[in-house]
Amino acid sequence: MNDHVDTLIPELVLGTLEDELRADVELHLERCARCAAEATATGEALSLLALALPPEHPHPTARTRLLASVSEQRGLEPMGRGRLAAFVDQLASFFDVTVERARTLVDLVSDRSAWTIGPATGVSLIHILPGPRFAGADAGFVRMAPGARFPRHRHTGDEAGLILEGGFTDESGVVVRAGERHQLAAGTSHDFVALPEGCLFAALVQGGIEFLESLAPD
Amino acid sequence: MSFHGAKGALTPCSIGGYDLCVGLVEQPIESVKGPRRPDAGAAGGDTALVAAVAAGDRAALARLYDRYAPTLLAVGQRILGGRREAEDLVHDVFLEAWRQAASYDPARGTVRSWLLVRLRSRALDRHRASSGAPLPIDSVPRLEERAAGGEDPALAPDRVAVRRALAALPSEQRAVLELGYFEGLSSSEIALRTGAPIGTVKSRVATALARLRAGLNPEGAPGGAG
Question: How far apart are CA A166 and CA A201, in angstroms?
């Protein structure tokens, strides 16, 4: 679907669009910044309908209940584990490991002591052994602090990434977010900057990378 | 009552027994005075709040809740009919916001719409699953029963601007927005309900949203509500 979808955006945003068309329009929005921006603006206007209703004040106990349940949650879950559970299957195929192994990898990511200092300020790493399909590849997890920059480097082989939390902005301005993958061919080079919420991604590098700039901190 | 009878029920400002714009004088959008860009004041602060929530700050979640729970609860109650159910829904949405705050991207919309999209989709799912029966009219709040105090003043100018912009829409355009947004009907269902051809419904949706946008984001609008 190459044509712009302006005429369908109002129905898409309102939710009145028939399912068959919806998939096409959503696909187009993923690829077309102009229509995506149009959909965002239309969605903003629509969400204002909510303000036409008189506000309803929740019972004070509802607020207390909410705050109590979030403190319980944080207490029970090691940082990130709950959110990452959703990625277990994807990680299994990404690294060519079993689902059980992927689960232990998720636990590993949640363990602060597993992280080692990475190649730049605000970047830390966990190295892991991938499955047989990627034998010899450099595999693991990369965590970037909010706004941290991964230094410019060239790939001597193909590189794949699966974003688990937050996201980053590539040098071309493209934003890659949690749940998305990125793929770079051998010979390409790039740098990227973590979004304000930081970034956690799984990475698989075949061949290795060569840094194109000095890695001396400051 | 036939569908055509139902069409007759869609009088100006009144859908499903709920009056969205009671007491507002019909006026052309051009005359809406000084509606600032919606959320201009709250948006920056909201983004910082969500970032703090993502970092595990409960106080930030509490502030986000104080600001938006009344709006979310109103929409939940409008869609579901029952207050208890709507309160549960608001609870779930804020829990989800707590867990997924790190995925919020300001480039994809305001915090207000980020929360509302979640609430509305969950509410419509539950509504469809429960029965799809029309809302009991008595359970739906009316505009004149304004909640006294406690509302975040940052949202008040937006509320006025929205009511004015809605009041400026022809009733049939307002009706498609309300049937789609609060009842979750598809274009073909709206066509059935209102007796209008589907093509007409589609063009009403487009025109209504375009006019709502134009009315709420006029070029060069001065800051502050008039």
Answer: 9
CB B178 within 8 A of CB B19: no
Spatial contact of B196 and B33, defined as CB atoms under 8 Å apart? no
What CATH number has the domain bearing residue A134?
2.60.120.10
What is the rounded CA–CA span in Å between residue A155 and residue B40?
A: 43
CB pairs under 8 A between A and B: 188
Residue A158 lies in a domain: yes
Domain ranges within chain B, ordered by starting residue: 3-216
Distances from the Cα of B126 to the Cα of A51, B179, B184, angstroms:
22, 16, 11
Cα(B163)–Cα(B174) distance, integer angstroms:
11
* DSSP symbols for A18-51: -HHHHHHHHHHHHH-HHHHHHHHHHHHHHHGGGG
Distance CA A185, CA A191 (A): 14
Distance from CA of A133 to the nearest CA of B (A): 31
| Residue A66 lies inside a defined structural domain of this protein | no
Q: Specify the pLDDT at position A76.
A: 36
A16 and A102 both lie in a single domain: no
* Predicted complex ipTM exceeds 0.85: no
Report the predicted TM-score, pTM, of the whole model to 2 decimal places. Answer: 0.57
Residue A159 lies in a domain: yes
Q: Assign residue B132 a region: left if phi > 0, alpha if psi is -120 to 50, beta otherwise?
A: left
Q: Which residue of B has its CA nearest to A49?
A: B162
**% of chain B at pLDDT higher than 90:** 32
Asked whether residue A4 is assigned to any structural domain, the reply reads no
Contact between residue B150 and residue B18 where contact means Cβ atoms under 8 Å apart: no
Could you please state the CATH topology (level 3) that the domain comprising B3-216 is classified under: Rna Polymerase Sigma Factor; Chain: A (1.10.1740)
Question: Which residues pair with residue A203 across a beta bridge?
Answer: A140, A161
> Based on the structure, what is the number of domains in chain A?
2
Cβ contact, residue pair A63, B166, below 8 Å: no
Dihedral of the CA atoms B64, A54, B161, B185 (nearest 10)?
Answer: 90
- Any chain A CB within 8 A of the CB of B19? no
pLDDT of the residue at B151: 56
What integer pLDDT is reported at residue B22 of this predicted model?
Answer: 39
Instruction: Give the domain extent around A27.
Output: 9-52
Q: In this structure, what token pair is assigned to residue B125?
A: 């799912």
